[in-house]
Amino acid sequence: MRDGRSRLVVRENSRNTRFVKGPRALLVELSWVSRVALKIYLRYPAWIIADIITAPAWLVLLIFPVLMFLPKSQWSSPLVLNSFLWAMILWDIVSYGLWSFGMAIRREQQMGTLEFIYLTNANRVLIFARNIFARIISLTLTIAYTYVFFKLLFNIQVIIFDPLPVLLVLLLGLFTSMGFGLLYGALVLRFKDAGPLNNILQFIILGISGVFYPVSSLPESLRVVSMILPFTYVSEILRYHALGMPTLIPVKCEWIILVLSTLLLNMAGFILLNLIEKNSKKTGELAKY
Amino acid sequence: MLAVEARNISKTFISRERSSFYRGRKKVVEALKNVSFEISSGEVFGLLGPNGAGKTTMIKILSTLLLPDSGEAYVNGYDVVREPEKVRESIGVSLYSDRGFYWKLSGRENLLYFASLYHLEPGWAKDRVDELLSLLGLEEDADRLVEEYSTGMKSKLNIARALLHDPPVLFLDEPTIGLDPNSARKIREIILELKKKGKTVLLTTHNMFEADMLSDRVAIINKGKILAVGSPSDLKRRISSKSILEIELIGVKDNGAFETLRGLDGVVSMAHQWLDPSAGRVDLKVILDEKGSLREVLEHLLRTDNKMLSVKSIEPTLEDVFVYYTGERLESQA
Amino acid sequence: MYSFITLVKDLRARPRFLYAALFISILMKETKLFTRYVGSLFTIMAMPFMMSWLFMGIGYAVAGYSALDNFTVNTGVKSPLLYFTLGGVLMISSMIMVENMSSVIREEQLMGTFELHYLTPNNTILVWIFHAVAQSILILIVFTIDLTVVVALQGSLLSPLDWLVASLIILLGLLPLAGIGLAVAALTMRFKEVWAVASTINSFIAMLSGFFYPLEVFPGIVRLAASLLPTTHASQLLRQIIQASATSLDFQQKIAIMLGLSLLYLILGRFVYERWEVEARSKGELAKY
């Protein structure tokens, strides 16, 4: 009882209804969210094929313009090409995390399912992170295909000094980009079509974070800016462990900064998403698309 | 025991008019103005009003999808603003929409997914989904992708989703809209079954027949305000002392031919509906009080050169109650 | 006040130049939509610059001081900014054209407006071609702004004649893509995954058209395939015009090829679309989405 207000016996007609609570509820959600993601993904076969087929085209489109700045003799330099290969893989993972929440929210808005999701008490972040489960499959295929194409096109060996730290930093990079993705997702919830902003953001991040080249080659003023971005540390640590290239500051420090900034980003994204959800409910714009 | 309480709920929306390339001026729409009502436990409460009256806005506020600008609302004793999670556990909502499902999932898969979001135990959820699919006549189409479903099937699936976790309170927003008569009848039967089981149902509709048939009490809402609340028979009784005339005219060129009736002594309310504009056929509903006289009305109409096809004196319906309070027809706004 | 007599009278009045009036109303609709998505408009205009700066940034970071010299040797062009911006404008334009025309059926079906076009007394293929022309005109505006900025930075401006010729080349380069788009739109109705196919086509057009590198980097067979794309010729011609290095023979030859390709692709698109339309009408699938 509260304020003398009487409440119905909850679910007096639902003696048979069985609910799960706490961590088990989260597991049930996770199980179905991942299942739905995979089912939907596999039921759009054209997208799977397109993802794989277009991988080499985008690889060529990104690498060849840059090769124009190098003498022809260096076009088959293993170090240069491996830098590009790892950069492409990193960018694939990172850009997906960046877009994932926003795309998921946009999709739910367009399908009309967003409001029905908000009628439940399910974890919003888990639901909107749904596409990442399907991405794990497509990413594996894309990486394998990119590797094969790379070998065929340039006929060089892929260099990877420490595979485990490489895998760890890629995984952490995914979570880092998810933090940005949460912020972007919040913007999509508010502005509906925030794609243009993310397009611009992508280019800025690509340019300043040293994804394709060491940050040490940037002018001082830009280097300071890039040290603020967590992606810089992902790129630096990846190049260190995959290709043995030096980092700006000791690699252990870079790992610590990366972990902390990832945590902070994700928290900020989560808070913003909640704030915008509340604001959208005030303005009545939750369902709009 | 009260299942739903709304006290002085107000809600305003701001939009922009666009007439050329750029954003025009701001337009303020008062969707709800100090709306208050109560729904007892186990009651079917109808919210009857035309499109744009504020029905869906009210449902969205009660289901925590929308925050009111002012006022308070409680569902199952929980404050919709301060305790939204508890409210959501207590309600099932069917919103009017042609979308709202994942096209590349089957009906069954959609329901199982939402069952997981409602935290239903997986084994139990499966049985519950089978039960609901059977109840709503969707068992044969359960494993077809939703992109192949008709509008009626999607409506049924919508209701199945609202019933997944067997909540004590249900909000059904225009549940039979767009359905063929058989499907609509089936949905109404289900609502009556739910009532027998002791569910509390808030039903919004602009179909007066449905409101009359299903509701224990009805609130008439128009332009964001509740105009009258009562059982269908009570509401009709309020205007039973009035005479209700249904007059069909033909060859009418414009509204001026009959609008002057409003000023006639004894005419409490009047509403019209064009049946065939090209032939000038229009249907009038005129409500007279004790001072009003059929003869005066007919004489007035004949004086203005109108040709009358038929004149009927009818028993009051909820539509007439609506006309009485608003001077408009429900159907002409639907 | 409803007056059926007045309304009937008004309906009898028809515009004098029916198809001109139709085209203008389509152009107005497309312009309003174009300008009301301000974020997308800004992205379309800024994207060529962002891509240019990205390539140049990576190129200079990787190659150091000899970057510009290497670029001139590899491409024959002194200004990477001009080279990449021109390529970027063409790439974005071609992507927009293919995507918009491919999804014209799907998007309109989702909105519920597709079937309504069939209720009007117009040839529907003409309606979609008018859409393509309207979009080409709008893209021309983007092209003009972007290229003027870059060319002005070089210390010169395009003469009105050069601008007219460049516009003609762009139109000839883009319109055939509308034919490809229509064919894709019709062929993918069954699978409803038009965006996957459009994305694949776009990636290959982008890779093969030489937007950002000379086609000499590819083997002969790939260059032959690239010559079947109108955008390949458009990008070569436009570079020559802007660098004032086009010969009249080159010019006439390429224009003739582009005209031929335009006709070929538009006829193909029309043929495939008309076949789909007949089937959709008999199966009642015009509105199905």
What distinguishing features does this structure have?
heterotrimer, B: 334 residues, Rossmann fold, Alpha-Beta Plaits, 6-stranded mixed sheet, 33% helix, elongated, C: 289 residues
What is this structure's SSE topology?
The complex is a heterotrimer of chains A (289), B (334) and C (289).
Chain A: H1 22-42, H2 45-67, H3 78-111, H4 114-118, H5 124-128, H6 131-154, H7 163-191, H8 195-208, H9 220-228, H10 230-243, H11 251-283
Helix pairs in contact in A: 1-6, 2-6, 3-6, 3-7, 3-8, 3-10, 7-10, 7-11, 10-11
Chain B: E1 2-16, E2 26-40, E3 44-48, H1 55-62, E4 70-75, E5 78-79, H2 84-90, E6 91-94, H3 107-117, H4 122-135, H5 151-163, E7 169-173, H6 181-196, E8 200-205, H7 208-214, E9 217-222, E10 225-230, H8 232-238, E11 243-250, H9 256-259, E12 267-276, E13 281-288, H10 294-303, E14 307-313, H11 318-326, H12 330-333
Parallel strand pairs in B: 3-8, 3-9, 6-7, 7-8
Antiparallel strand pairs in B: 1-2, 1-4, 4-5, 9-10, 11-13, 11-14, 12-13
Helix pairs in contact in B: 3-4
Chain C: H1 4-12, H2 18-36, H3 38-63, H4 67-75, H5 80-102, H6 104-111, H7 114-118, H8 124-153, H9 160-187, H10 194-208, H11 220-226, H12 230-242, H13 248-283
Helix pairs in contact in C: 2-8, 3-5, 3-8, 5-8, 5-9, 5-10, 5-12, 8-9, 9-12, 9-13, 12-13
How many structural domains in the coordinates of chain B?
A: 2
Main sheet characteristics of chain B? 6 strands, mixed
Can you give the helix content of chain A as a percent range? over 70%
List the total number of helices of chain A: 11
CATH topology of the largest domain in chain B: Rossmann fold
Q: Mean of the pLDDT scores of chain A? A: 84
- Shape verdict of chain A: globular
CATH architectural category of the largest domain in chain B: 3-Layer(aba) Sandwich
Global geometry of chain B: elongated
Give me the count of strands of chain A.
0
Low-confidence stretches of chain A: 1-13
Sheet with the most strands, sense and barrel status of chain A = none
Name the CATH class of the largest domain in chain B: Alpha Beta
- CATH homology superfamily name of the largest domain in chain B: P-loop containing nucleotide triphosphate hydrolases
Biggest chain contact? A-B, 47 and 59 residues
Oligomeric nature of the chains: heterotrimer
Low-confidence stretches of chain B: none
